[in-house]
Amino acid sequence: MPPTTHLTDPDVGYPATDPMPHGRQKRFRSLLIGGTSVALAVAVAGGVLVASRQGDEQASAQLAGALFTTGTAAAGDGQQLELNGVAATGATVVVAGGEDADSGYRTEFFLSKDAGRTFARAQVRTAKGEPPVAGEVPRYVAAGPGGWVALGDRVGGSVVWTSPDGAAWTRQPDATASLAFGPRDRVADVAWTGKGFTAVGQTSDKGDFTDASPVVWLSADGRSWERRAGWRLHPPTGGTLALTDVASVKDAIVVRGESSAEPYDITWRSTDAGETWQAFAVPGESGEPELTFAATATTMLAVRQDGSHATTYTSPDGVRWSTAAKIDVPGFRRVLRLTATAGAAVAAIETGSGVRLVRSTDGRSWQPAGATADGAEVRDAVAAGDNTVVVGADAAHGTTGALLAVRDKAGKDVPAKLPDTGGSGKVVDALGTADGRVVAVGGANGEAAVWTSADGSAWQHVQDKEKALTGQGRQRLTGVVPGFAGWLAVGSSGRTPGHPLVVTSADGESWRRADGAPAFQPEGKNPLVARGVTAGPDGYVIVGEDGYGAGTWWSPDLKTWERGNPAGEDNLVGTPATRRWMESVTGGLFGFVAAGGVTDPNAYGGVFVRRPTVWISPDGRKWSLVRLPIPSGVNEGWLSHIASNDDVLVTAGTAVTGNGTGTAAFGYASLDGGRSWQPISLPVMAGEQSSVTAMAVTPEGFVLAGTVGRPGDVVVWTSADGRSWKSEQPRGTGMSGPGDQRLTAFTTVGEELVGVGSTATGHGDEPTVWRRPLSPDETSTP
After folding, report:
1. Checking CA distances to 357, which of 17, 318, 759, 762 falls within 20 to 30 Å?
2. Which residues does the annotated region (Disordered) include (predicted)?
């Protein structure tokens, strides 16, 4: 799993007798994760279960979309939306994708009943009727006589959604999906195949898919799936094999596989609902993989690329094939996608001047069906009545905006628009305080944004007079820190390859770009990602990613920048099998210490096993890697946050548990500036998932935020010394209840702890602000 995908789900907070949101009853436990053991215990004092809990009179939380004004339209403009798949039956169309919102990726389905002319947002709920959690991405969607199914992915596995009508979708439980879809499976296609749904893809024992083997999944209703491993579908010449296409006609299921050795295209046919398979061949030959399948109600179609054109073959049963026609369009390069509904097939053709669409009802005669703009990324297309609907990414937003194109029978544009994205269109990711000024950074409607405040209550949007916060594609600031030379904020820019967004300010009000320096220029296609930022006596440090490796940048004065260097051979430089990434960094008299993870090919025999890692630097320029023991009892873990108070350091992150479906917050403390580390115990609630979302140092010590459950409620851990920790459960709007709640940053304002974050429901996201005294009263609850 790429390290740029992060889990954010945690656990902790309610006393055993409190009624829980969503009808849950919970009890406390202590999760101790060390280098060699995981121990679970209920903390009991005098026969009474004890937990730190804040009183309602001490703290308050509020929705903050109106506090963080921008002077622009409040609703999102689609730059955070992506569309991955589309399916149709008659004039009914479903588009699947999601929104990259503050709380993480949020699943979205859109329904049209008039062949793509108008769309409405579909309802998405879990099997318990709750809003789904963040971070789940639908990629493939199919329609059958009895309903719809969508398949996608999340960290650690696959996700299944079903719908009877396309208007209301149910996210099926992991317990059901995980029986068929493993953490090392990849789904590539799904289709209705006469008596149910069939999905195809690949699996890997190693985890890096250098040993890919085929998998078929079968389902009668889209909810329960049966996994058929590839022992019946081995390529005759050995090598690896991944299934990429599935289609059906007259109860015959046809799957296509892509082999690493000749013949590159291998095909099978089943007439008994996937019980047995027989290999067959489509006419024509090629020296590379280039075959694709689709089926109308009466005809199976195979399209084979052949130099400057494509050739179509048709079959009534998947056995007898005949050459049907050529698809020959000016500037032909390759077939991007071939799909079919009962009435027509659509081929999306990449040309030298954009993507051309062609349609056919029988595979013998193909008619132009329109085109998309040059540079658009087409991910799927489908025939809906006389219209053709195309989805993907819009190059005008640097591949971060959604592409929805509808063309009529003559290929002319049909004006179509998705509903406005839900929520405020604003995100608040980080906070900093210095000289009586609080600075918040994040994004608004696809551009980076900065707000300032004197008290953490009233916020003013910073006017971007220098145009430092705008640019090609989506811009967003995710970290900010004050230092002796001024303020530094970092984030991401939508440029390709990935480019860090780095801005500086003398006063927090006027910002200038700094990422034009040579140190921030990517080498080749390796993306650069800036994630964490800090300031110390020796200057400023930014950490993140440099391609497969960890990236660091150091500046003594915010004027000159240089890249960090490894103290050892593999300290920063990574490979596809040994990735390195840093997510957070802290500085002090000890120098600098960064936290993140590495993928370890020797851990549990898996290439993509992530291990918690810190890097130590005396000066911000030369870095040494230190692997921390991966906790036993969990599959993998990585660190997302680090903070320091003098020579005491705390780092925390997320561990993956069970079969890849569970998460647990864990961490370590160092009392000697990062030279040695010990595990810390974070109180969490039994039976729930947890992770870490924010960390800071206050005059009272350390404070950590996380979430508990799926969807998540906020939990806060505090410690005076970094070793012993207490938990509290904030309540109310934006902290608990329906939806996903999280805090993403803390700062201290006077005698108050101020946190910012978000609440996400099925209707959208909204920033939140939470405040409480630095020293809350503690109560014991029986």
Report:
1. 318
2. 1-23, 756-782
